[in-house]
Automatic annotation (TrEMBL):
It comes from Rosa chinensis. InterPro entries: Disease_R_plants, Leu-rich_rpt_3, LRR_dom_sf, RPS4B/Roq1-like_LRR. One of its GO terms (biological process) is defense response. PANTHER family: LEUCINE-RICH REPEAT-CONTAINING PROTEIN (PTHR11017), TMV RESISTANCE PROTEIN N-LIKE (PTHR11017:SF527). This is Putative leucine-rich repeat domain, L domain-containing protein. Gene3D superfamilies: Ribonuclease Inhibitor (3.80.10.10). Keywords: Leucine-rich repeat, Plant defense, Repeat. Residues 206-291 form the Disease resistance protein RPS4B/Roq1-like leucine-rich repeats domain.
């Protein structure tokens, strides 16, 4: 039934302009999209495009191929290479999902103040943008496994961001200080960012619930926690190079999971850690420099109740 309804919907859209796909409201045929963009035949009728390819395909689109698509709100592309580059995208975009995005940055003239989700996983992006961009509605940035990105952009103008996913960005070296003051950020995932050495000196994120730094093997110091951060539930610092935790960890009063496994340089825990009464899951396995007595104390403090040392 679902397939039948989908086919009926497609047919209705085709009938909008049988011979001129550039005048339809939505395009999902790979051939139609390729022809429209190659000839620059797009119009402001197009509101959505979906082109998911199983194998990489070289597209000989003109750099200004999207210039006429002023009402394009959804763009979902996968495995498309653009040897001629790209000079513009629609500023009406609300969802931009381009898996394997082939370029080093977003177009300079891209001012998408309606953009809600930016998903460029497995991309060639080196730097998203330069300077400050005012993306007031942007809530999700996903760049996981983008191997060429070396730094995060200035996020001062992205104050409504809720998720930043940079997992597996092996060559990420720098995090812009503005990241530490995103009041609405809920999830920050930096897992497997193996070249990352430092983080903002302090973070003040009152909405943050999940902070993942797993296997950031060059990170020696984590930020000071400032202000109200009682919503943080999960803190994963496993396989980092940290030597100690900040005294300000006491602010994480809602913390449930604290993973410090295989932190081989960790030599001590601050006294203030005993204020974390909500911890149910504490992992200290592989922390070779922590004394056995200290581990025993941790088991006594958190080992009872519903949680424990794992």
């Amino acid at each position: 039934m679902h397939d039948l309804l989908q086919e009926m919907g497609w047919e209705i859209v085709r009938e909008q302009s049988p011979d001129e796909p550039g005048k339809r409201s939505r395009l999902w045929s790979h051939d139609d999209i390729n022809n429209v963009l190659k000839k620059n035949d797009g119009t402001d009728s197009i509101q959505g495009m979906v082109m998911e390819l199983t194998k990489l395909q070289v597209a000989h689109w003109k750099p200004e191929a999207f210039s006429n698509l002023s009402q394009l709100g959804l763009l979902h592309i996968r495995n498309v290479d653009l040897p001629k580059g790209l000079t513009c995208l629609s500023n009406s975009l609300r969802l931009l999902k381009w898996t394997g995005y082939p370029l080093r940055s977003l177009p300079k003239l891209f001012e998408a103040d309606k953009l809600i989700e930016l998903n460029l996983c497995h991309s060639n992006v080196k730097q998203l943008w330069k300077g400050t961009k005012n993306f007031d509605k942007l809530k999700f940035i996903k760049l996981c496994h983008s191997q060429k990105i070396v730094e995060t952009p200035d996020l001062t103008g992205v104050q409504n961001l809720e998720t930043l996913d940079l997992e597996g960005c092996f060559h990420l070296v720098r995090i812009h200080q503005s990241l530490g003051f995103l009041k609405k950020l809920i999830v920050l995932n930096l897992k497997d960012c193996k070249s990352l050495k430092s983080l903002p000196s302090r973070i003040e994120m009152e909405s943050l619930e999940t902070l993942i730094l797993s296997n950031c093997s060059k990170v020696k110091k984590i930020p000071e926690f400032v202000g109200n951060m009682e919503r943080l539930l999960v803190l994963c610092l496993d396989e980092t190079a940290i030597e100690e935790l900040p005294v300000s960890i006491e602010r994480l009063t809602g913390l449930v999971t604290l993973n410090l496994s295989n932190c081989r340089n960790l030599v001590c825990l601050p006294r203030t850690i005993n204020k974390l009464k909500s911890v149910e899951n504490l992992n200290l396995s592989g922390c070779l420099k922590l004394g056995k007595l200290l581990v025993s104390v941790c088991v006594c403090v958190w080992g009872g109740g519903g949680g424990g040392l794992f």
